[in-house]
Amino acid sequence: MNSTRSLIHPRDEIMQTMDRIYRYRMTTTSGGNLSIRDENGDVWISPARVDKGNLTRADVVRVLSDGSIDGLHRPSSEFPFHRAIYEARPDIRAIVHAHPVALVAFSICRETPNTKLFHQAHSVCGNLGFAPYACPGSEQLGANIAATFAQGADSVILENHGVVVGGDSLAHAFQRFEAFEFAGKTLVKAGQLGDVRYLTDSQLNQAAQRSVDFESFDPPVATATERELRRQLCLFIRRGCRQRLLISTEGSFSARVDRESFLITPTRCDRELLDVEDLVLVDGEKREAGKLASRAANAHQAIYQRHPNVHAIVFAHPVNATAFSVTDSNFDVRTIPESYVFLRDVKRVPYGVQYRSDGKIADYLSVESPAAMLENDGVIVTGSNVLDVFDRLEVLESTAEAVINAKAIGNVVAMDDNVIEELRSAFNL
């Protein structure tokens, strides 16, 4: 992710980011701290002993380059390691430290998650590291962490403690932190299903090198239909992020405007913060001027062209469904009636099909198979409108989570053929 010129004051940026981390349950009331190093070398940091779930902009502390403090509170007790990281890595401008459950689990097992589960997590998280234990708040902890960052690490597991992530902006650091935790959660879930499949360097490069070659154009005045679709997409993308069906750097969502055009999420933009103006109109081989469409736009277009009944599409990475995508465990929707009625038969798509320009991804979807599992890349869900797609995505993820949980109880028993035939008859499937 490339940094952009931020016009948000450090106090507000720290307050807003901490609210998001706490709301996502990726830290506790007393745990975690955020900081930003500004252009003067001053460090803005969250305070010590202040409720993280109710942080205000006035609570944020500034530690000046001469060591003096400006603020209502003392800076976080972990300030020494923030300062040490900044001294070791001049390129780092912001730091996130927290105790998200999955990464804490890795820290107490003294392991680091392998982010080669899927290309975006591996790309976003950067270089990984592990820092040996020292007492929280101590100079020794700062030295241990800074040494790991000095070796080129960007996302660091702290032994028996948590995680520290650095970035060239607080938005960048947050995205790395969120993607790192997502990879950790996916590994924990996938480990309950079977052997985890990791991507090779050539497979990672296949995803990284894809491109979208649409010419730019100035679209006409937006119709009421387009405006409504923009509103719906933003609402459901934001809801998806808050329900952890999507994360800020993962996935794409689109809606058909007419036979030749559709709206789609942009690339390299935080999904939860998207506004109606950020969405990109694609019309044939052209895309709205001044915007970059998602790199999945070609796959969306191929599906719309092949399936006139499809009016909305989402590529997403909800944790439990993604756990199935990184293993060979069979995802059987014949578990409860809702799962079968909404999802029918979920096919498995071999890795990389969605990145190709031949449109083959459309072969794996139909009225009978509105959703598919993408090997090492989450899921794809189609539907008749934005709400329909979102509903199916929720059902798919809930089903995946229920099946994973059921494996801790006993054998998963699918509904038999007689029940399936009854459902097909009752719901005209």
UniProtKB/TrEMBL annotation:
rRNA-binding among keywords: no
InterPro entries to which the protein is assigned, alphabetical: Aldolase_class_II_sugar_metab, Aldolase_II/adducin_N, Aldolase_II/adducin_N_sf
Domain Class II aldolase/adducin N-terminal: 12-188, 231-404
Keywords on record: Lyase, Metal-binding
Keyword check for Metal-binding: yes
GO cellular component: cytosol
Assigned EC number: 4.1.2.17
GO biological process, one term: pentose catabolic process
One Pfam family recorded for the sequence: Aldolase_II
GO MF annotations in UniProt: L-fuculose-phosphate aldolase activity; metal ion binding
Protein name: L-fuculose phosphate aldolase
Organism: Stieleria varia
Gene expressing this chain: fucA
